[in-house]
Specification:
Strand order of the largest sheet: 3-4-2-1-5
InterPro entries: Peptidase_Prp, Peptidase_Prp_sf
Protein name: Ribosomal processing cysteine protease Prp
CATH class: Alpha Beta
CATH architecture: 2-Layer Sandwich
Structural class: alpha+beta
Radius of gyration: 13 Å
Largest sheet: 5 strands, mixed
GO molecular function, one term: cysteine-type peptidase activity
Organism: Enterococcus pallens ATCC BAA-351
Shape: globular
Strand content: 25-35%
Family: Belongs to the Prp family.
Order of helices and strands: EEHEEHE
CATH superfamily: Cysteine protease Prp
Distance between the termini: 22 Å
Amino acid sequence: MIQATFNKENGRFVDYEITGHAYFADLGNDIVCAATSSLFVTITNQLLLKADVNVEAEKAYKVVLNSQGIIEDILVNTLLTGLRDIESAHPENIKVKVIG
């Protein structure tokens, strides 16, 4: 199962992390993993262009927001909304949570 965790402090996102695999289908045919990866990569690339962020990719894919502003909020909320849409269609393959 994919686990997507978004952390907030004082009403602003400070980081998000995605771990695991959906196991919806065989590797290379997994639409849940593909959709999740596409959203993650697209939004994270935009944050890398527009904001001060660090990307960690050791055991998981974690993005730390060193700045919190309207651009960061819009982009991270877009990712969160997209992942929640995937979760509503495939609750056995992805779990999304917000802490804080």
